[in-house]
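Quick one:
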Amino acid sequence: MHRLPILVLTAACGAAVQPPRATPLCAGTVSCGREQLIEADQALQHAIHQRGVASAFSEVLLDDAHLLADGKGLIAGKPRILEALAAAPPFSWTLARADVSLDADLGYSFGFMEKGLYAAVWRRRSGAFRLAVFLSRPARPQSVAPPAWFVPFRGEREPGPAARQSVSATDSAFAALAKRADMQTAFAAYAAQDAVLFGSTMVFGREAIREGLGGAATLDWGPIAEGSAQDLGYTVGGYSRGAVRGNYLTIWRLEADGSWRYVLDGGVKG
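Output:
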Protein backbone atom coordinates (compact mmCIF):
# COMPACT_ATOMS: atom_id res chain seq x y z
CA MET A 1 0.00 0.00 0.00
CA HIS A 2 1.18 3.52 -0.32
CA ARG A 3 0.96 4.33 3.37
CA LEU A 4 2.21 1.07 4.92
CA PRO A 5 5.37 -0.85 4.03
CA ILE A 6 4.09 -4.23 5.26
CA LEU A 7 0.74 -5.88 5.77
CA VAL A 8 0.28 -9.19 7.53
CA LEU A 9 -2.00 -11.69 5.81
CA THR A 10 -3.89 -13.99 8.08
CA ALA A 11 -4.11 -16.92 5.66
CA ALA A 12 -1.38 -18.53 3.60
CA CYS A 13 -0.76 -21.35 1.19
CA GLY A 14 2.40 -23.37 0.93
CA ALA A 15 3.47 -22.28 -2.54
CA ALA A 16 3.31 -19.21 -4.72
CA VAL A 17 0.28 -19.01 -6.94
CA GLN A 18 -0.41 -17.58 -10.35
CA PRO A 19 -3.16 -14.96 -10.78
CA PRO A 20 -6.34 -15.82 -12.64
CA ARG A 21 -6.07 -15.52 -16.40
CA ALA A 22 -8.77 -14.91 -18.94
CA THR A 23 -9.01 -14.08 -22.61
CA PRO A 24 -10.93 -10.83 -23.03
CA LEU A 25 -13.61 -10.80 -25.70
CA CYS A 26 -13.92 -7.68 -27.83
CA ALA A 27 -17.62 -6.82 -27.95
CA GLY A 28 -17.81 -3.06 -27.36
CA THR A 29 -15.93 0.10 -26.44
CA VAL A 30 -14.79 -1.17 -23.04
CA SER A 31 -13.82 -4.70 -24.02
CA CYS A 32 -12.10 -3.60 -27.25
CA GLY A 33 -10.29 -0.82 -25.43
CA ARG A 34 -9.23 -3.20 -22.69
CA GLU A 35 -7.90 -5.64 -25.26
CA GLN A 36 -5.81 -2.87 -26.79
CA LEU A 37 -4.52 -1.91 -23.34
CA ILE A 38 -3.54 -5.50 -22.59
CA GLU A 39 -1.72 -5.66 -25.91
CA ALA A 40 0.17 -2.48 -24.97
CA ASP A 41 1.02 -3.93 -21.56
CA GLN A 42 2.37 -7.14 -23.07
CA ALA A 43 4.14 -5.34 -25.91
CA LEU A 44 6.05 -3.26 -23.38
CA GLN A 45 7.19 -6.39 -21.58
CA HIS A 46 8.29 -7.97 -24.88
CA ALA A 47 10.19 -4.82 -25.89
CA ILE A 48 11.98 -4.77 -22.53
CA HIS A 49 13.49 -8.16 -23.28
CA GLN A 50 14.18 -7.38 -26.92
CA ARG A 51 15.75 -3.92 -26.61
CA GLY A 52 16.27 -3.17 -22.94
CA VAL A 53 14.28 -1.28 -20.33
CA ALA A 54 15.05 2.33 -21.25
CA SER A 55 14.59 1.76 -24.98
CA ALA A 56 11.26 0.00 -24.44
CA PHE A 57 9.93 2.70 -22.12
CA SER A 58 11.07 5.48 -24.44
CA GLU A 59 8.51 4.36 -27.02
CA VAL A 60 5.48 4.43 -24.71
CA LEU A 61 6.10 7.09 -22.06
CA LEU A 62 4.11 10.29 -22.14
CA ASP A 63 6.20 13.43 -21.74
CA ASP A 64 4.64 14.12 -18.33
CA ALA A 65 4.76 10.51 -17.12
CA HIS A 66 5.55 9.48 -13.56
CA LEU A 67 7.72 6.58 -12.40
CA LEU A 68 7.41 5.27 -8.84
CA ALA A 69 10.27 3.01 -7.79
CA ASP A 70 11.18 1.74 -4.35
CA GLY A 71 14.17 3.61 -2.93
CA LYS A 72 13.83 6.34 -5.57
CA GLY A 73 10.34 7.60 -4.84
CA LEU A 74 8.70 9.65 -7.57
CA ILE A 75 10.48 10.53 -10.81
CA ALA A 76 8.56 12.95 -13.03
CA GLY A 77 9.00 13.57 -16.75
CA LYS A 78 10.14 11.36 -19.60
CA PRO A 79 13.81 12.50 -19.75
CA ARG A 80 14.38 11.92 -16.02
CA ILE A 81 12.61 8.56 -16.12
CA LEU A 82 14.72 7.32 -19.03
CA GLU A 83 17.87 8.46 -17.23
CA ALA A 84 16.79 6.52 -14.12
CA LEU A 85 16.07 3.40 -16.21
CA ALA A 86 19.30 3.51 -18.24
CA ALA A 87 21.02 0.75 -16.26
CA ALA A 88 17.92 -1.20 -15.20
CA PRO A 89 18.02 -4.96 -15.94
CA PRO A 90 15.12 -6.54 -17.86
CA PHE A 91 12.13 -7.67 -15.83
CA SER A 92 8.91 -9.56 -16.48
CA TRP A 93 5.42 -9.63 -15.06
CA THR A 94 2.16 -11.56 -15.09
CA LEU A 95 -1.03 -9.56 -15.57
CA ALA A 96 -3.59 -9.86 -12.78
CA ARG A 97 -6.20 -7.25 -13.74
CA ALA A 98 -6.83 -4.63 -16.42
CA ASP A 99 -9.63 -2.17 -17.04
CA VAL A 100 -10.44 0.92 -19.08
CA SER A 101 -12.82 3.83 -18.71
CA LEU A 102 -16.20 3.89 -20.45
CA ASP A 103 -14.71 5.85 -23.36
CA ALA A 104 -11.55 3.67 -23.34
CA ASP A 105 -9.33 6.77 -23.08
CA LEU A 106 -7.85 5.84 -19.69
CA GLY A 107 -6.96 2.46 -18.24
CA TYR A 108 -4.76 0.53 -15.89
CA SER A 109 -3.03 -2.81 -15.54
CA PHE A 110 -1.34 -4.45 -12.58
CA GLY A 111 0.12 -7.77 -11.60
CA PHE A 112 2.93 -9.89 -10.27
CA MET A 113 6.64 -9.69 -10.97
CA GLU A 114 9.12 -12.39 -9.97
CA LYS A 115 10.07 -10.52 -6.80
CA GLY A 116 7.55 -7.75 -6.68
CA LEU A 117 4.40 -6.06 -7.96
CA TYR A 118 3.73 -3.59 -10.73
CA ALA A 119 0.98 -1.19 -11.73
CA ALA A 120 0.60 0.95 -14.84
CA VAL A 121 -1.75 3.75 -15.85
CA TRP A 122 -2.32 4.16 -19.56
CA ARG A 123 -3.77 7.10 -21.54
CA ARG A 124 -4.86 6.97 -25.15
CA ARG A 125 -2.97 9.35 -27.42
CA SER A 126 -3.44 9.40 -31.22
CA GLY A 127 -5.29 6.09 -31.03
CA ALA A 128 -2.64 4.20 -29.01
CA PHE A 129 -2.19 3.66 -25.30
CA ARG A 130 0.78 5.47 -23.78
CA LEU A 131 2.18 5.13 -20.29
CA ALA A 132 1.23 7.85 -17.79
CA VAL A 133 2.37 6.13 -14.58
CA PHE A 134 4.45 3.05 -13.85
CA LEU A 135 5.00 1.69 -10.33
CA SER A 136 7.17 -1.22 -9.28
CA ARG A 137 7.88 -2.36 -5.76
CA PRO A 138 9.35 -5.41 -4.05
CA ALA A 139 7.03 -8.01 -2.56
CA ARG A 140 7.08 -11.54 -1.29
CA PRO A 141 5.87 -14.39 -3.52
CA GLN A 142 2.08 -14.42 -3.49
CA SER A 143 1.21 -17.14 -1.01
CA VAL A 144 -2.51 -16.39 -0.83
CA ALA A 145 -4.56 -17.20 -3.90
CA PRO A 146 -6.81 -14.50 -5.32
CA PRO A 147 -10.33 -15.14 -4.00
CA ALA A 148 -12.98 -16.70 -6.22
CA TRP A 149 -14.75 -13.36 -6.67
CA PHE A 150 -11.64 -11.64 -8.08
CA VAL A 151 -12.45 -10.65 -11.68
CA PRO A 152 -9.50 -9.82 -13.94
CA PHE A 153 -11.67 -8.09 -16.57
CA ARG A 154 -14.94 -6.16 -16.29
CA GLY A 155 -17.45 -6.21 -19.09
CA GLU A 156 -19.41 -3.52 -20.88
CA ARG A 157 -21.40 -1.13 -18.69
CA GLU A 158 -23.79 1.80 -18.94
CA PRO A 159 -22.83 5.36 -17.99
CA GLY A 160 -23.61 6.21 -14.39
CA PRO A 161 -24.11 9.49 -12.53
CA ALA A 162 -21.64 12.36 -12.69
CA ALA A 163 -18.86 12.34 -10.13
CA ARG A 164 -19.57 14.29 -6.96
CA GLN A 165 -16.01 15.62 -6.87
CA SER A 166 -12.61 15.16 -8.48
CA VAL A 167 -10.34 12.23 -7.72
CA SER A 168 -7.81 14.56 -6.06
CA ALA A 169 -10.52 15.97 -3.79
CA THR A 170 -11.54 12.42 -2.92
CA ASP A 171 -7.94 11.48 -2.14
CA SER A 172 -7.62 14.53 0.12
CA ALA A 173 -10.84 13.61 1.94
CA PHE A 174 -9.51 10.05 2.27
CA ALA A 175 -6.34 11.39 3.94
CA ALA A 176 -8.35 13.68 6.21
CA LEU A 177 -10.48 10.76 7.43
CA ALA A 178 -7.34 8.76 8.25
CA LYS A 179 -6.12 11.60 10.46
CA ARG A 180 -9.52 12.28 11.99
CA ALA A 181 -10.39 8.62 12.68
CA ASP A 182 -7.72 6.00 11.88
CA MET A 183 -6.13 4.17 8.96
CA GLN A 184 -8.39 1.14 9.27
CA THR A 185 -11.56 3.24 9.12
CA ALA A 186 -10.36 5.35 6.19
CA PHE A 187 -9.04 2.50 4.05
CA ALA A 188 -12.24 0.50 4.55
CA ALA A 189 -14.48 3.51 3.86
CA TYR A 190 -12.79 4.46 0.58
CA ALA A 191 -12.17 0.94 -0.76
CA ALA A 192 -14.28 -0.55 -3.51
CA GLN A 193 -15.65 -3.96 -2.57
CA ASP A 194 -13.11 -5.61 -4.89
CA ALA A 195 -10.18 -3.30 -4.09
CA VAL A 196 -6.59 -4.54 -4.10
CA LEU A 197 -3.87 -3.19 -1.83
CA PHE A 198 -0.14 -3.56 -2.51
CA GLY A 199 1.57 -4.58 0.71
CA SER A 200 4.17 -7.26 1.26
CA THR A 201 1.89 -9.18 -1.16
CA MET A 202 -1.41 -8.27 -2.81
CA VAL A 203 -4.30 -7.96 -0.40
CA PHE A 204 -7.68 -8.68 -2.00
CA GLY A 205 -10.96 -7.08 -1.01
CA ARG A 206 -12.26 -4.43 1.37
CA GLU A 207 -12.66 -6.78 4.32
CA ALA A 208 -9.12 -8.18 4.09
CA ILE A 209 -7.77 -4.64 3.80
CA ARG A 210 -9.73 -3.59 6.88
CA GLU A 211 -8.50 -6.57 8.89
CA GLY A 212 -4.89 -5.97 7.89
CA LEU A 213 -4.87 -2.36 9.04
CA GLY A 214 -5.92 -2.83 12.64
CA GLY A 215 -3.68 -0.62 14.79
CA ALA A 216 -1.80 0.87 11.84
CA ALA A 217 -0.03 4.15 12.57
CA THR A 218 -1.48 7.15 10.76
CA LEU A 219 0.29 8.61 7.74
CA ASP A 220 0.07 12.05 6.19
CA TRP A 221 -0.46 12.08 2.43
CA GLY A 222 -1.78 14.18 -0.40
CA PRO A 223 -2.10 14.09 -4.18
CA ILE A 224 0.28 15.95 -6.50
CA ALA A 225 -1.03 14.72 -9.86
CA GLU A 226 -4.32 13.32 -11.10
CA GLY A 227 -6.17 12.18 -14.17
CA SER A 228 -9.64 10.88 -14.95
CA ALA A 229 -11.91 9.87 -17.82
CA GLN A 230 -15.60 9.24 -17.19
CA ASP A 231 -15.71 6.40 -14.61
CA LEU A 232 -11.98 5.84 -14.00
CA GLY A 233 -9.28 8.01 -12.44
CA TYR A 234 -5.97 8.02 -10.63
CA THR A 235 -3.95 10.10 -8.21
CA VAL A 236 -0.20 10.19 -7.64
CA GLY A 237 1.06 11.73 -4.43
CA GLY A 238 3.47 11.79 -1.53
CA TYR A 239 3.22 10.41 2.00
CA SER A 240 5.14 10.72 5.24
CA ARG A 241 5.29 9.20 8.70
CA GLY A 242 7.91 10.91 10.79
CA ALA A 243 11.18 10.69 8.89
CA VAL A 244 9.82 8.13 6.42
CA ARG A 245 8.90 9.53 3.02
CA GLY A 246 7.47 7.92 -0.08
CA ASN A 247 5.06 8.16 -2.98
CA TYR A 248 1.89 6.39 -3.99
CA LEU A 249 -0.47 5.58 -6.84
CA THR A 250 -4.19 5.17 -6.25
CA ILE A 251 -6.58 4.08 -9.00
CA TRP A 252 -10.19 5.15 -8.55
CA ARG A 253 -13.46 3.84 -9.96
CA LEU A 254 -16.68 5.82 -10.06
CA GLU A 255 -19.42 3.94 -8.21
CA ALA A 256 -23.16 3.91 -8.86
CA ASP A 257 -23.80 6.65 -6.28
CA GLY A 258 -21.35 9.10 -7.91
CA SER A 259 -18.58 8.55 -5.36
CA TRP A 260 -15.00 7.54 -6.18
CA ARG A 261 -13.65 4.41 -4.51
CA TYR A 262 -10.17 3.01 -4.95
CA VAL A 263 -9.68 -0.29 -6.78
CA LEU A 264 -5.90 -0.29 -6.37
CA ASP A 265 -3.59 1.40 -3.91
CA GLY A 266 0.16 0.96 -3.78
CA GLY A 267 3.30 2.90 -3.07
CA VAL A 268 7.05 3.02 -2.72
CA LYS A 269 9.56 4.42 -0.25
CA GLY A 270 11.44 7.50 -1.35
